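From the thread on structure requests for the teaching lab: each student submitted one protein with a one-line request. Submission from student K.M.:

"Model Sporulation and spore germination from Lentzea albidocapillata subsp. violacea, tokens only."
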Amino acid sequence: MLVLAVLTACGIRPTDPIPGLEAPSGPVENTSPSLYWVSPGGRVVPVGRPEGSLSGFDVVALLAQGPTNAEQGRGLSTEVPFDAAPATVDRVANGLDVNLSSDVSQLSGAAVQQIVCTLLAAQPVGTVNLHGGGHSLEFQKCA
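Reply posted by the TA:
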């Protein structure tokens, strides 16, 4: 009887559920994205980065800076020009609009794929539209 009295007298009373906010919806940003580098064979390959979430600006700036020493030791490189950053990234109806600081018509195919694949790995939202230097590359996908 004493145990029953102790258990029922803890002071917590039952309540109705407490309402909260609606659950988030829409695309989820990958919190441990991969950066895409150019392999020795010329293919664009993903390399995981554990640092956490990256914004579009960070992605383009990191790609322009090139791979780490350890990644370079594995033969990885970048074709994204240093002057591509800073960049702005905006979400639009069909995906992402990316405005680079350099002319997108001068980007190699590998550089375009590095940017597009890295951005879509972080935010899988459709396609990427690249703009810069008065030119545009529309509806790019990671191939």
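TA comment: The chain is about 25% helix and 20% strand. Residues 4 and 10 are 11 Å apart (CA to CA).
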